[in-house]
Fold this protein.
Amino acid sequence: MSARAAWRLASLGFKQVYRYRGGKADWLAYGLPVEGAEAGDPRAGDLARLDVPTCRLSDSIDQIQARLEGSGWDTCVVVNDEQVVLGLIRAEALDENSWRTAEEIMEPAPRTYRLSKSLDDVARYMDQQGTDSVLVTNPEGKLFGLLMRNDLEQARAELEKKRSSRQ
Amino acid sequence: MAEKVYEIDRDQVRSLMAKGAQLVEVLSSKAYNAIHLAGAKNIPLAGLNRETAAQLRRNQRVIVYCADDL
C-alpha cells in the first residue's frame, strides 16, 4: 500500500518521496515513539519476563536441569551466540537420559511473537494452542523474553477497564 | 525528469525526520487513530489526491508508510 502511495505522490509532482519499507510494525517492534488512542496500551514486549533461562544446542540435560533448579522456571530457551531463538525446552522433556543434548530434546522453531504484538492476538494464540507461555523476540529473531499467561490475563483485564472508560 | 521513489529503513526514517522530513501514514483513519508513528499525518491511500496532498510541503522530503501487520 505504501508503495502505491509513494508513487502516487511522485505522480503528483513530489520530487523527494521515500517509502519506509518496514512501516508501523517495524517501528513498534523497536519500541520507537508512537501516538494515538492505543499508544499507551501494553503489548507483548511490555509483559515479557526477561530472566527466562537460556542454553546452547550442545548443553546436556544435566546442565539444563542444574540451570533450572531453584530458578523458579520450568522452561529453557535454546539460543545461539547471537541470542537468536533456535528451540524451546519444557520441564517434561528433561525426564529423558541425561547424556542427551538440548538439540536432541528441544521443541524446534517454536512460535515467537514480536514485542509489538497486541495482547488480544497473543491471548487468541494461547487459547488455540492451549499453551501458557509464548516467546517474544525482536525482528531479527533474538530472544527478548517469555510472556506468561497469568501476566497476560491480568494486563488484559486492566486494559479492558481502560477501554471501557474511554467509551 | 523521471519520477523516483526511495526505499528506506527505520534508521533512515529517523535521520530524515530529524532533518524535517514529513511522515505520512496511508492506512485508514481508524488504524491511524489507534496508533501511529509520532509526528505522522494521515492521508489514507484511497483519499490521496492533489487536494489532500496539498497539506504536504513540496520542498521538503515526504516519507510514506503503512504495514498493519502488528
Q: What stands out?
A: Chain B has a mean pLDDT of 92. Chain B touches chain A through 46 residues (CB under 8 Å). The longest strand of chain B covers residues 5-8. Residues 14 and 38 of chain B are 11 Å apart (CA to CA).
